[in-house]
Specification:
The structure is a single chain. The chain is α+β, with helices and mostly antiparallel strands and 713 residues long. Strand 18 and strand 19 form a beta hairpin. It has three domains: 253 residues, Beta-Lactamase; 144 residues, GAF domain (Beta-Lactamase, 2-Layer Sandwich); 160 residues, Reverse transcriptase/Diguanylate cyclase domain (Alpha-Beta Plaits, 2-Layer Sandwich). The strands form five sheets. A six-stranded antiparallel β-sheet has the order 13-12-11-16-15-14. The chain has a five-stranded antiparallel β-sheet with strand order 2-1-5-4-3, with helices on both faces. Strands 7-6-10-9-8 form a five-stranded antiparallel β-sheet. It starts with a helix and ends in a 13-residue tail after the last strand. Helices cover 48% and strands 21% of the residues.
Length: 713
């Protein structure tokens, strides 16, 4: 019902009729609540009563098993063990009582010598808890859930000592209750539809369950709240618990009497809440239908009377108000006359005229605001992405993606100054600028870069144009220098499409301010990215050799090992050491040693692939990480480097330094280790052996697990 309909005279009249029915409805609901409370209490009592009956049946079953144990213990073939005769008697009893999985006798040492189910070989039950407890207590013991080792069936085993007249233990007789038979108790319990039946032991394991008994036997009770309530009360009890199937039930439980607390069994019966409330719900539904019928008659009478006294002009006014509220700004009442309704209609029409004008103005303002908010969101997103970029290439890709959305109606480009600062090159372009020329041009060809301030051309047919504009030029354009901390980094160019095109729109003042704000953001972001590139290079590079430093190697090595593990590809680690490097420092000076290290770094960079990693490990030691390289490939590469070092000529201030030789140790993944640390140790050990064998050689690591020397050179 609409808001206008609710405020009408008819709605008020109908509402009064409905309010008159509220007390009757409240009385019905209170009565229904009381009936449900009574039904809940009755369901809990019924569940407890059924649990007691089932527990009594279980007690009788256990008492029968105890009586059978007493008879078994007195058999002569048990007192004086005779396996064949005893097993035959046990089998005869088993045929009469299929409720048992097995019955028989166990020697004091734990070996089964008598079994109703034929033995396929020696069976020992010495490790069973019920067997050891029977020996200790010399009394009847109940096992809890076990799987019978002879029959292979889940069972509840009862055991009793068999002693002779002198009190000497001759055997332990046992009877296994078939847990698969226990759900038969459900058939005699006459449970209501949707009810559940559960027999559990003191450890909380399911011995029988309805429904789905087979899937739960031996598992933990799926209703932990029920087991907590049972253990808390240690006797009979009632509780409302939601079952494993998501059905709320009223549970009642009772213990099986005559068992010690550690071996106690519990029988639980749950009656579903829906089944318990069937009658209460039926009474409630019948009463509500009666009340609804009375209410419908009353509403019909009120509606007919209201129709006779409500004027048609009110209908017209309401209809016009509904159309206006639905968004039809042209809806008018146009009620004729001079009475109050006519005055109301004319006032409504005047209000609708003013509202239509206001809505149109607000719509324009809303569109502008949404566009500004979208621009701010994209601008903030641009700043966040630039802050996260590690390289200028990443930043340029971000600029192209974000600025294409930010200036979706215009074409544009971002240009960056070259290293020489004489040329400027496009690094991100979109729209018509993406397919145009002018990708590289001199800085002097842009008016904005000459003047150091934004250059706006409102009409490209008359204004001074930069030579880098695409052909044909846009209807209007603006070039904004990218300046950060007083340094010109590049240029932002924005071009408006011609007015006659589908996306044509002027380069408004708001768009020009946006271009300047974007230029400021981009300049600051690019400056930060360049600074991060410089700082990162300084943090991971050795300043003397230009190679990666030890920290970068340690970070990268584990990543390369994991990548090789995922791809199932080999990789190699080479550890190299300049032979007799100390003599170079002693015979020449440290400057000569530095020159030798610089030339060694250049040699590694020339002879390694782009994806390989060369690091200065420390002093005159180097570590090379070769991606996707086998032991044979790595050894060959090491030999090439060793030969290259021999041919290397190093001079320092006119002095020839060297010649020098190189010792190298090679280790590969996974032959010599499956972690970065293991590969480094293996390569280091191989290098150590190369030094001991005379230096100037390549030595491969020994297989993983081979003892390595514990000292460094």
């Amino acid at each position: 019902m609409s808001r206008i309909a609710l405020s009408s005279l008819r709605s008020r009249l109908l509402l009064l009729v409905l309010l008159a029915l509220v007390p009757a409805l409240a009385l019905i609901l209170v009565t229904a609540w009381e009936q449900r409370q009574l039904a809940a209490a009755e369901a809990e009592e019924s569940a407890l009563r059924l649990a007691r009956l089932a527990a009594s049946d279980q007690e009788r079953l256990i008492e029968g098993a105890r009586a059978l144990l007493i008879g078994l213990a007195q058999l002569p073939d048990v007192q004086a063990p005779a396996a064949g005769a005893c097993s035959a008697q046990a089998a005869a009893i088993h045929r009469r009582f299929p409720v048992y999985t097995n019955l028989g006798a166990i020697a004091p040492a734990g070996d089964v010598f008598c079994s109703a189910v034929p033995l396929r070989g020696p069976v020992s039950l010495a490790d069973r808890g019920y067997f050891s407890r029977t020996l200790e207590t010399r009394d009847v013991v109940v096992s809890g859930y076990v799987v019978d080792r002879v029959s292979g069936k889940p069972a509840l085993t009862l055991a009793s000592p068999a002693v002779d007249g002198a009190g000497t233990l001759r055997a332990v007789v046992f009877v296994g209750l078939d847990l698969a038979w226990l759900p038969q108790l459900v058939k005699t319990a006459q449970l209501p539809t949707g009810s559940s039946f559960l027999i559990s032991d003191a450890a909380g394991l399911v011995l029988a369950r309805h429904p789905d008994s087979a899937g739960w036997i031996g598992q933990s009770v799926p209703e932990p709240a029920l087991m907590r309530a049972i253990h808390r009360q240690q006797g009979e009890g009632k509780a409302q618990v939601t079952g494993a199937d998501g059905v709320p039930r009223f549970f009642g439980w009772a213990p099986v009497r005559g068992l010690p607390p550690a071996e106690r069994l519990y029988v639980s019966v749950g009656i579903s809440r829906d089944a318990a409330f069937v009658e209460a719900n039926r009474v409630l539904l019948r009463t509500l239908l009666s009340l609804a019928l009375v209410g419908a008659v009353a509403l019909a009478v009120a509606a007919l009377g209201g129709h006779l006294i409500v004027f048609g002009r009110l209908r017209t006014l309401v209809r016009a108000a509904e159309l206006l509220s639905a968004g039809d700004l042209g809806a008018r009442a146009r009620v004729e006359g001079a009475d109050e309704i006519a005055v109301l209609g004319r006032s409504f029409d005047a209000m609708a005229d003013r509202l239509a004008a206001m809505v149109k103005g607000e719509q324009r303002a809303k569109e502008d605001l949404e566009e500004r908010v979208s621009e701010l969101d994209l601008l903030n997103r641009l700043g966040e992405l630039l802050q996260a970029c590690l390289t200028l290439e990443e930043a340029y890709a971000v600029l192209e993606r974000v600025l294409k959305d930010l200036f979706r109606f215009e074409s544009g480009a971002v240009f960056a100054c070259s290293t020489s600062r004489s040329l400027i090159e496009a690094v991100a372009r979109w729209g018509a600028a993406a397919s145009g020329s002018g990708g590289v041009f001199a800085i002097e060809e842009c008016w904005a870069l000459r003047s150091g301030r934004p250059h706006l051309v409102e009409d490209t047919r008359s204004g001074p144009l930069c030579t880098h504009l695409p052909s044909p030029p846009p209807a209007a354009c603006i070039c904004v220098p990218l300046v950060a901390q007083g340094e010109a980094l590049g240029l932002l160019y924005i071009g408006a499409p011609p007015a006659g095109t589908p996306a044509g729109r002027p380069l408004s003042e708001a768009r020009r301010r946006l271009a300047e704000a974007v230029a400021e953001q981009v300049a600051l972001g690019l400056a930060n990215v360049k600074l991060r590139e410089v700082l990162r290079s300084q943090s991971i590079r050795d300043p003397l050799t230009g190679l990666f430093n030890r920290r970068y190697m340690e970070e990268t090595l584990e990543r390369e090992v994991r990548r090789s593990q995922r791809a199932g590809r080999p990789m190699a680690v080479i550890m190299a050491d300049i032979d007799h490097f100390k003599l170079i420092n002693d015979n020449f000076d440290h400057d000569a040693g530095d020159a030798m290290l610089r030339e060694m770094g250049a040699l590694f960079q020339r002879n390694l692939r782009r994806e390989d990693i060369a690091c200065r490990y420390g002093g005159e030691e180097f570590v090379l990480v070769l991606h996707d390289a086998s032991l044979e490939d790595a050894a060959k590469r090491a030999e090439d480097l060793r030969d290259g070092v021999k041919q290397m000529r190093v001079s320092d201030r006119g002095r020839i330094v060297g010649p020098v030789t190189l010792s190298l140790g090679v280790a590969t993944f996974p032959e010599h280790g499956i972690t970065g640390e293991a590969l480094l140790h293996a390569a280091d050990a191989a290098l150590y052996r190369a030094k001991r064998r005379g230096r100037d050689r390549v030595t491969t690591a020994e297989p993983a697990g081979t003892p390595r020397p514990g000292e460094r050179r």
